[in-house]
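Can't paste images in this forum, so I'm doing it all in text. The chain is below; anyone willing to post the predicted structure tokens underneath?
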Amino acid sequence: MILEAEFGSREGLLATFEDGLKHNNKKNFCLQMMHLWIDNEKTEELEIIKETILRKFKSRKEVYLVLCDYYLKRGAKEEGRNLLERSLQYVPPKEHPDMLKTFENLEQKYGA
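Text version of the structure:
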């Protein structure tokens, strides 16, 4: 995965992603791939697969927080806030306080 992300083509990276979903824990694999794409600045690939990941794991706060971190780090404050609002519709209410606190910390960290 790492070699494909650093040196491979977009098609190869997306094929690796699809193949990896078949053979790994889907949520953990998606989170790992998201971090890999962010670290290697593969923003186009992340944007391509983002909606698919959000559909599959729409009630998982970790997925939303990784993407909020990504947007706020890039200075896309509005996109991060929109994603937070979207997450509050799907993430269980008992996890909302933790999500809001983490998002607030991210805003402070990146000066958003």
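Helices lie at 2-7, 10-23, 26-39, 43-56, 61-74, 77-90, 96-110. The mean pLDDT is 86.
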